[in-house]
């Protein structure tokens, strides 16, 4: 099976700090990467889809300035939560798909829990 790795796996940071979340496909080339978030007591929501070297497609209501995504090559993508605030506390999940003909095209995913604490020092 294929592996997707996400780093860091958990972040607690001070309000106003930007958080960078990295997603790597370890043993396959991910032509497409998906970024999701799940707010407390809500369903998983697709935020954006990125294809290597192309423009990111954001879902309606997702602000690209708040959540910029970089997908420079077939094994790496990064999501930044800019100026994070308590309302950004969420599970952030990356998923990757290999679209090589004959390959296993099921998305592989990993998640990150982002917790924001207004007065706590940051590891961000």
Automatic annotation (TrEMBL):
Gene3D superfamilies membership: Immunoglobulins
Broad class of where this protein is predominantly found: membrane
UniProt xrefs under InterPro entries: Ig-like_dom, Ig-like_dom_sf, Ig-like_fold, Ig_sub, Ig_V-set, TCR_beta_variable
One GO location term (cellular component): plasma membrane
A Pfam family the protein falls into: V-set
Location(s), subcellular: Cell membrane
GO aspect biological process, one term: immune system process
Keywords assigned by UniProt, alphabetized: Cell membrane, Immunity, Membrane, Signal
Presence of the UniProt keyword Signal in the record: yes
Domain Ig-like: 2-113
Protein name: Ig-like domain-containing protein
Organism of this sequence: Pan paniscus (Pygmy chimpanzee)
